[in-house]
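User: Please go through the entry that follows and flag anything odd:
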Amino acid sequence: MAHLVEIFTASLLSHNIALTYILGMCPLIAISTNVKNAKGMGLAVVFVVTLTGIINWPIYVLLKATNTTQLSLLVFIITIAATVQFLELFLEKFIPALYNAFGIFLPLITVNCIVLAVSLFFVNRAYTFAETAIFSFGSSLGWMLAIVLVAGIREKMAWVSDVPRGLRGKGITFIILGILSLAFIGFSGLANIQ
């Protein structure tokens, strides 16, 4: 149990997939303009990453048992695409305001590198099913934490600071991400999942 807590803590903080591995930057930068959209995108990513990690683990075990692991990348991508398609249909039907707020970025979760990276990480680290589920959830929650932090800082800066014209928008976002990444280095001694 302590090992699972360590995996969760590390994937959330010291090995944050956005702020340590610098993955998933395109939607993080594009959607982090306000906290509401950032939370919605974060929840969508948490759902997709956790579900695909849980689905991909037994698929990989089956591929390993049949000595066809060379197909794992293709199968992982198909699983990710199907999960995102399901999420897109669900949001369009039941939460159209959030669906419209995402625009083109919802289908882009399919090609968001963190979704595939989590599946590749559990393969490379030889995680068990429980470790994979915890790692998938922790990593996606860490990405959500990063996007909500960036969105909150950007919203606050719009009210209280005068950002130079050349740094407005994506420029200041990269600076915020750099500072947050440096701050998250402080968690490096907390837990290790290598």
User: Anything to note?
Assistant: The mean pLDDT is 87. DSSP finds eight helices and no strands in the chain. The longest helix spans residues 129-160. The chain has one domain: 7-186.
